[in-house]
């Protein structure tokens, strides 16, 4: 039912835990299935330097969280925003259709964490509509 990659990320999840003083935190959940995912991001000069997660849920939710944090590390915020649920599922070598919602949660968690960071820095949150509609903002080192 699950690919070897899903089983590997479930049995040996990468980046589990919290980041103290995270720059962005995104929490999402699906009340129907009970999966709850919390994504923590450390961001420096518009680059995600660290990503961790805490997930309560099924094996597919844990594997999706693990893979999503792997995929966004080292990326700019714009590149990380583009990491879709489809990209997460493909990187896991597929998810059963009934478990695709887990990859959607991972995408949404990343989006919420990025927007949490943007709001803290005084920028408007991104939506699919406004992401590409304005010029690149200078988000470098505003500590």
Could you state the order of secondary-structure elements as H and E? HEEEHHHH
* CATH class membership: Alpha Beta
Distance between the termini: 47 Å
Q: Which percent range describes the beta-strand content?
A: 15-25%
Number of domains: 1
Description:
α1 crosses α2 and α2 crosses α5 (about 100-120). Strands 1-2-3 form a 3-stranded antiparallel sheet. It contains 5 helices and 3 strands. The model is unreliable at about 135-143 (pLDDT under 50). It has a single domain (about 5-120), classed as Alpha-Beta Complex (Sufe protein. Chain: A), CATH 3.90.1010.10. The chain has about 140 residues and is α+β, with helices and mostly antiparallel strands. The chain has helices at about 5-10, 60-70, 75-80, 85-90, 100-120, and strands at about 25-30, 35-45, 45-55. The protein is globular and about 45 Å long.
Question: Layout of SSEs?
Answer:
Elements: H1 4-11, E1 24-30, E2 35-44, E3 47-56, H2 59-72, H3 77-81, H4 85-91, H5 100-120
Antiparallel strand pairs: 1-2, 2-3
In short:
With 143 residues, the chain is α+β, with helices and mostly antiparallel strands.
List key phrases describing it.
143 residues, Sufe protein. Chain: A, 5 helices, alpha+beta, three-stranded antiparallel sheet, disordered C terminus
């Amino acid at each position: 039912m699950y690919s070897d990659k899903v089983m590997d990320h479930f049995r040996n999840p990468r980046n589990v835990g919290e980041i103290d003083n995270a720059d962005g935190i995104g929490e999402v959940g699906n009340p129907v299935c009970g999966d709850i995912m919390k994504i923590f991001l450390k961001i420096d000069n518009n680059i995600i330097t660290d990503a961790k997660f805490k997930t309560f849920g099924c094996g597919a939710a844990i594997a999706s969280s693990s893979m999503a944090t792997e995929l966004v590390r080292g990326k700019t915020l714009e590149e990380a925003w583009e990491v879709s649920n489809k990209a997460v599922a493909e990187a896991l070598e597929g998810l059963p259709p009934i478990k695709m919602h887990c990859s959607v949660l991972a995408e949404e968690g990343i989006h919420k964490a990025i927007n949490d960071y943007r709001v803290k820095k005084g920028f408007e949150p991104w939506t699919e509509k406004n992401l590409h509609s304005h010029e690149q903002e200078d988000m470098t080192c505003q500590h």
